[in-house]
């Protein structure tokens, strides 16, 4: 490996363990994730039902995010990450046994509940890094964990081509669960705590727990910085756009336009490859121009890429869409995550991460439903066209962030 490249990476020990285990897990996940909606459709689910299914998952995940953020700050990070990431890994196996589309609700619900560990995971990742190096650290984490997405989606498409949409993707779900169990097992063995939690009185019953949770989340939101609140508005609006489009991209390309699954897998590979190649250069750009400006400029690339998508007609257009999407991911992801962490004090970071996730997921519920109705009622392109002004509008709150960053 090139010396300059190694020096550009920044992954302290705990962050490296999280990155390595997430990479192992994503080997299997990358086989199936781009084609999940196609699997649902192959079992007989309509675009409207898929939107409803994902909306239910988003609603449950939103609630578990709040609980996850609370327990991450009360219990500490490690326990939450280990227990619920284990449940999440195992949930992939449930898809193998689904024979009717209306039963898809069960693995969706299980995976959504298991997502409770996400705020603790994000808090632990950022706390493992020096504040000034967080953009570089998050980019390094994303680079390492994105490696499987460069190659694996193509093999997921091959499995579909060889065995059909149902049998091929069931095999992909098996690999997703298998690699998930391997990754989480190593995580359980090696991971160390970064925040021991807050000592509070013992909660007597579920009602007292829910009351304490509600009060605590309200307190965190009330005392969040002005910048954090503006970033929260951005996250909600951006989630509205992604909720309308993400579930229907693969269906549109494969079912409506007739692209071969292997070719869609290759397009996903292009996105992953570009994002990996540009992560470290994008980080240097972030460090040069600052988090706020980087987040603004990167966010503007999203509606631009969506415009390329709706106008795409041939191979060159779709490759361009994939490449621009990869560049956008490389630039936007580390910027937003680092900005969230730097605008949240350490003792409230788990709850603030949960609040960002909660409101984004709540917004995604009507967006996923709306996307299904637009796709089915007004034509496949309708939902993608409608998302463009939403993405543009989401940038406005970012321009109003004025207060300084917190560097705990």
Output the keywords.
79% helix; mainly alpha; 408 residues; disordered N terminus; 16 helices; Growth Hormone, Chain: A
What is the number of strand segments? Answer: 0
Helical content (DSSP H or I, runs of 4+): over 70%
> Could you give the distance between the termini?
32 Å
Tell me which CATH architecture applies here: Up-down Bundle
**Quaternary organization:** single chain
Number of helices: 16
Tell me what you see in this structure:
With 408 residues, this protein is mainly alpha-helical. The protein has a single domain (12-400), classed as Growth Hormone, Chain: A. 79% of the residues lie in helices and 0% in strands. The chain has helices at residues 3-8, 13-32, 36-42, 47-75, 77-91, 105-114, 118-127, 134-163, 165-190, 206-222, 226-256, 261-289, 291-311, 315-342, 349-378, 382-394.
How would you summarize what this structure contains?
This protein is 79% helix and 0% strand. With 408 residues, it is mostly helical.
Write the layout of secondary structure elements.
Layout: H1 3-8, H2 13-32, H3 36-42, H4 47-75, H5 77-91, H6 105-114, H7 118-127, H8 134-163, H9 165-190, H10 206-222, H11 226-256, H12 261-289, H13 291-311, H14 315-342, H15 349-378, H16 382-394
